[in-house]
Design a protein that fits this description.
The strands form 3 sheets. A 4-stranded antiparallel beta sheet has the order 4-3-7-8, covered by helices on one side. The protein has a 3-stranded mixed beta sheet with strand order 5-2-9, with no helix packed on it. Strands 1-6 form a two-stranded antiparallel sheet. The protein has a single domain, classed as Carboxypeptidase-like, regulatory domain (Immunoglobulin-like, Sandwich), CATH 2.60.40. The protein is globular. The chain has 4 helices and 9 strands. Helix 2 runs antiparallel to helix 3. By secondary structure, it is α+β, with helices and mostly antiparallel strands.
Amino acid sequence: MLSLTACAPPVYFASGFQGQIIDAQTGQPLEKVIVVGLWIAGGVGFGDTGLDQRLRVYETVTDKQGYFSIPAAVVPRNPFSRSPGGPSLRSFKRGYLAKTFFINDDLPFKLPPLSEDISAKYQARKLSKVFNSIVDNSNPQDWRKYPRMVLAMSAEVERLISMGITWHLPDIPYLEDFSEEDKQFLEGFKDEI
């Protein structure tokens, strides 16, 4: 009975967040950067088991001035988990390095453009780190929560493969294996990337 009083509520209030993404070199706002907010509660179970619970995944895109907004939401949670401090933000735009930001990072967020100083292998590793941290492998339809990211990263993986990069690539779903219904669903997001 005593241990039950130490449990957290079975819901989590994921507060909203607004930010801006700019080019790290020019300082100009970046339009159509895909941003995926990911809330993860740590230590699900009795004690600190190290098992995490994904509370919420939310995808959005920056506007012409580089701004994005993630609305607040109430989401179910395991009452034995630790509350996340807020979302971590996975970001990607073609021609830029894939990057994870945290809400306590300095604003505006700065996204480095790809250059000769950034190797294709390094981009592949960053893509993997960003994309694979979003994916819930236990749910085959989880990609529907971040369709823009799937489309954009698929194109980037194809580009890297054409350059001879085959290692450290993210586990992107094979779009050609999708059902016609899934392909039609994705079609609605192609103009946004």
